[in-house]
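Recall that a protein's primary structure is simply its ordered list of amino acids. Everything else, from secondary elements to tertiary packing, is in principle encoded there. The following example makes that idea concrete.
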Amino acid sequence: MAAFYRFGRYTLICPLCHALDRERFLICALDRKLLGLPAGRLRILQIAPSEKGLSKRLSQAGNLIKGDIEPGRYGPDTVQVDLMNMNGISDLDIVVLCHVMEHVPDDRHAFRQIWSSLKPRGQVWIQVPLIYRQTLEAPPSMSRSERDERFGGSDHVRAYGPDIKERIEDVGFTVARIHSDRIPAADRERLGLLPDTLFIAERPEKHNSD
């Protein structure tokens, strides 16, 4: 792990390709079949697409849409997508959210918007920093320096705990978890993987609200 360098408290960066540990974990989960891509040509939305190796992998599975509320940060092939208002975006098979939701003003509303954008059996892949036992929201008065200290980033509006699973389920999703400890210890060391959890939220075929 010494070959990787730390960025903040929750990130290890590869000095060769500059991939973050969360991206390496997700790609490793795909390689080891812990995480599967459904068959067929998929319509995939990747929000805040800084994970270029993951983008390349996803684009091989179908039509990859790179989106963000500030698309100019990610290059000319990124379109504007606001998770608080996803009108006009539909029929998605997969939405990928790698360390996105801790930046979103109202995560419950965003999860409802994402639900509406997905096909039945569509999935959301969610990674967030899990800092506390229960999720804490930052009050508007909290300074940027205090957010950085307590929430892991000066622009984070909340610090999640494992109860994010209940927040996602409240919308109607079924949620499974993949822990990084399912990858052998030697591979975690080689890949520079920190303890991490990937949440897989699936929109059921039928739901009471449909």
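The longest strand covers residues 118-127. Residues 46 and 96 are 5 Å apart (CA to CA).
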